[in-house]
Amino acid sequence: MESSSTRKRPLSPFLTVYRWQYTMALSILHRVTGCALSVGLLLFAYWLVAVASGRSMYYEARDFFAHPLVRVMLIGFSFAFFYHLLNGVRHMTWDTGHGLERKSARLSGWIVFLGAVATTALFWLLIARRFGGAA
Amino acid sequence: MSLRSPIGRVLGLGAAKQGFAHWWAQRVTSVALLLLGLWFVASLLRMPGFGYEVVVTWIAMPLNAVLLLLLIASLVYHSQLGVQVVVEDYVHHHGLKIATMMLLTFAHVVVAALAVFAVLRIAFSGVA
User: How many CA atoms, within 13 angstroms, populate the side-chain half-sphere of residue A53?
Assistant: First the structure.
């Protein structure tokens, strides 16, 4: 007899069987941004360790974070942060049983996505206004 | 008639014997991160500058140091809970799954230890 783990069992419907909808993309994006933020955690730890390691290490880290390529990456991480945060609130609203109807789930999806874009833009605008190129 | 044993019904853990604790810890850390994350973003925006002394002085302030430690703890815990689900979903080979999860757990513990030590060192010794 086949063991229960090797036998071909029917699988629950997966992504490939569904018609594409943007709410799916938003759901996948939640997971993608979550994974990205797990990587971003390394940069956060690097920043703290650099500060704790003294002046020269800190300025080395500051130069690293000021590099244009790293800046682009940081903008990406900040978008991931705001998206994951806002969509997390959306998820927890669903946990209470509210906002699950198709219309409101789609609307909240748009609000969260555009909200994340807007918050990211606002964040970097404020950074640029306050610190200029020195930050 | 239910085929579930009375003790099984009382414990309410289902067939996997776990799950709710993971789900709940994810929610608790989510709410914590909502608050601590917004605090950190606001702090970055309100920072007087990013010179070495300024940053060290800011981190060393008791309230900031403690909130940073809580932020690190919630971040690492939440991240660990999240990547666990991703690994369970996409890594199908049993041995590889266990190895990946152990590696990620070690990585999270190392990052947490480094970040916590860094904050404590700054808080207790100040400008080096």
Answer: 15
Mean pLDDT lowest among A4-13, A29-38, A113-122: A4-13
Amino acid at A126: L
Q: Any chain A CB within 8 A of the CB of B59? A: yes
Identify whether B7 is part of a domain. no
State which residue of chain A sits closest to B42, comparing Cα positions.
Answer: A123
Q: With contact defined as beta carbons under 8 Å apart, do B58 and B64 qualify?
A: yes
CATH number, domain with residue B46:
1.20.1300.10
Q: What's the mean pLDDT in B78-106?
A: 95
- Tally of domains in chain B: 1
* Residue pLDDT, tens place only, A49-61: 999 999 999 999 9
Residues present in chain A in total:
135
A130 phi, psi to nearest 5 deg: -85, -40
User: Given CB atoms, is B76 within the 8 Å cutoff of chain A?
Assistant: yes
Q: Does B36 touch chain A (CB under 8 A)?
A: no
Dump pLDDT digits (tens) for A10-47: 777 777 777 888 888 999 999 999 999 999 999 999 99
The CATH number of residue A49's host domain is 1.20.1300.10
The whole-model pTM stands at 0.88
- A 70-129 residues with CB < 8 A to B: 81, 85, 88-89, 92, 95, 123, 126-127
- Which structural domain, as residue segments, surrounds residue A42? 21-134
